[in-house]
Design goal:
mainly alpha; 5 helices; globular
Length: about 100
């Protein structure tokens, strides 16, 4: 099975974003996740916004995501880990 990186990454970010109880910041999670991975160093919200080409737009939702959103880290990453492990197939038998 051939999988390209960008669609798989966007799928993982979308899956993780659904762990947030409030649906409003979910699109921001996807955008900033991509921007933080691909943007210049230092890995900041500002560098992500710059990489996304959104420097002339309202930045408040992006900063609000980190300052006001309740994050449950295990809950955020658990769906991604479950999906990744599921794609690996069954565990090999131990010897």
């Amino acid at each position: 099975m051939k999988t390209t990186v960008l669609p798989a990454l966007l799928e993982h970010l979308a899956l993780a974003s659904r762990s947030l109880p409030d649906p409003r910041p979910r699109a921001t999670v996807i955008d900033l996740g991509l921007g933080l991975l691909c943007g210049q160093k230092p890995k900041t919200v500002t560098s992500a916004i710059d990489w996304l080409g959104q420097t002339q737009e309202d930045w408040s939702p992006d900063y609000r995501l980190f300052s006001q959103t309740h994050w449950d880290a295990p809950g955020f990453f658990a769906p991604v880990f479950r999906q990744a492990v599921g794609r690996c197939g069954p565990a090999p038998e131990s010897i």
